[in-house]
Design goal:
Putative membrane protein insertion efficiency factor; mainly alpha; 3 helices; cell membrane; about 120 residues; Membr_insert_effic_factor_YidD
Length: about 120
């Protein structure tokens, strides 16, 4: 009677979550970092407003960066991304790189500033 195969009545389709859904190692630092970002999203984000100049938003970027690259590298990437989000900063689509080039070394965190700074810049 008009049923589509695989369609369950009364069940809502599953929508992807707000944050990155890909696989990531669940280390203590990553769990702590992504939990803090999620706590911000559930509490303070509504008061700050939805006026991010980038896609994904800065908090979504921070969650993915920490999940993919760890608390240290992802935290620096997130900090520099938020600093670029001001009125005179960058805008547009700014994705978290899947892998980091060898020049991004843990003891030189200022180098993470270059990630996503210019449109079309290679991160590898």
């Amino acid at each position: 009677m008009g049923d589509h195969p695989g369609h369950a009545h009364g069940v809502r389709p599953v929508r992807p979550g707000r944050n990155w859904q890909g696989p990531w190692r669940k280390t203590p630092g990553r769990i702590l970092g992504t939990s803090l970002v999620r706590l911000y999203q559930l509490t303070l984000s509504g008061f700050v407003g939805n006026n991010c100049r980038h896609l994904p938003t800065c908090s979504e970027y921070a969650h993915e960066a920490i999940a993919r690259h760890g608390l240290w590298a992802g935290g620096w990437m997130a900090l520099f991304r938020v600093s670029r989000c001001g009125p005179f900063g960058t805008h547009g689509i700014d994705r978290v790189p899947e892998t980091l080039a060898q020049r991004y070394i843990w003891f030189m965190p200022w180098r993470y500033w270059r990630i996503g700074r210019k449109s079309g810049e290679s991160n590898n």
